[in-house]
Amino acid sequence: MRVKRNILLVLVAAMLSRCTPATGEMDIFIKNGIVYDGIDSLPKLVSIGIKGDRIVYVGNQEKEDIPTRRTIDAQGLIVAPGFIDTHTHADVELGSPSESDNKPFLFQGITTVVVGNDGSSLFPISKYSKIYEDQGIGTNVIFLVGQGTIRERVMGKVDRKATPDEVLSMQDLVKQEMDAGAFGMSTGLFYAPGSYATTQEVISLAKVVSKNHGIYDTHLRDEGCYSIGLVAAVEEAVEIGEKANIPIHISHIKCLGREVWKRSDSIIKIVEEANKRGVEVTANQYPYEASATGLQAAVVPRWAESGGKDSLFIRYSDPNLKPRILEGTRQNIELRGGPEKLLIVNSEYEAYEGKTLGELSESMELNPNEAVFEILKKGYARVASFSIDPYDIENFMQQEWVVTGSDGNTGHPRKYGAFPRKYKKYVKGGTIKLSDFINRSTSKTAQILRIPDRGAIQVGNYADIIIFNPETFGDRADYQNPFQLSEGLEYSIINGKISVENGGYTEKLNGRILKKE
Ligand SMILES: [Zn+2]
């Protein structure tokens, strides 16, 4: 009898602890909203209570007698977990006092960004964590250690195989960065100097990451047909996952360039088969038809830039090498769809911005491949490259293992608009369901990155919550005006503190550095 009563008491206590706040009044109470919790496919009409930095109550909307300091009436609005952006280039901005608010991402509904993508990370992480922490940041941040950065530190920018000693040194540095809190390692195998690494070298480093329970995030060696080809590049990623026993996350999955358009079906098959064999393979994607990268990275042959930009121009001035460099560049421009498909979106020489390579080469009275080097002489230039087919975008987007990632970098509208654009164009347009968009921008992403206690509206989780207007939520940035904040976000709550209120920024830096335990 007594035992039974005790069990009953435990049950009642368990029910109470799930439904009511642990103690006293709540700091924030969100009521009347249409709640997508990040996991379920149907919305719920529930209220949410926040105390400190955690969600302490999710329950019946009718019940309004819970004492609270602050009530948010979300009538007619969608309440969701804050978005987690798996792929950004916000590293430098977050360290700059004028940009550490991370507004371009914050106003998309993003509450956590990943940095250190594409093989390139700030080094050492311990130093930059401290800078971010001391100064304050507008969103949460997760670090990845970049394989290209580590290789460059040990070997410079050279195009050669690593010696066994160099591999050991790289492994030590990867371990050091994982110990500093990185969630995994990124590679940019398309870019120098990461591209100079063999598959085996990458596996050696990935094994260290695996031991530290991190993930492997990759910009594939080839997203089109520049070197080994898209299919072989995906197979390489799967091989790394298999041999290093590590989850694989493919960044900004796409079929880049006319030659590989509509190949998404075969890529999906490779991923599905790997998943069936027990190799975890997932991907992120941005919803745009143009990719963006450095002009040099986009069209200059890799062998020609070994050693860096100075070495490139030394080779370019060598009459024996120049024709080969120009021919390789010409071919790469064609693979990108021709000079009209390459739009300069950001340049140290501002007059180039907003013009295509075709327009610039005409005004310079040069061939497009020669114009590339004139442009590069004036400094760094970034291009939007219109080389992705809508069929592949939608096909990848519909896979349950593909989550949203902005790849936000300066000059491409995706930095300001990726998540709201996906909602406006692809959810409202009927490509994917609203719950799939939300779940694959929140809890699924947290699961892929192994982030504990975030990504879902659940009691006990950190209170990273957004509230947006289903009618107006959308992107405003485009290729002509890439620096327009998105609209329709009414509230953003990060770690239980309000960062966006009634559509306006509260000037509060509520983000934290999330460290891998
Ligand atoms: Zn990338």
- What is the count of helical runs? 18
| Residue share in β-strands | 15-25%
CATH architecture of the largest domain: Alpha-Beta Barrel
Bound molecules: zinc ion
Number of domains: 3
Helix content: 25-40%
Mean pLDDT: 94
Give the N-to-C terminal Cα separation: 44 Å
Q: Give the CATH class of the largest domain.
A: Alpha Beta
Radius of gyration, whole Å: 24 Å
CATH topology of the largest domain: TIM Barrel
- Fourth-tier CATH superfamily name of the largest domain: Metal-dependent hydrolases
Low-confidence runs of at least 5 consecutive residues? 1-23
What form results from the Cα inertia axes? globular
Order of strands, widest sheet: 2-6-19-20-21-22
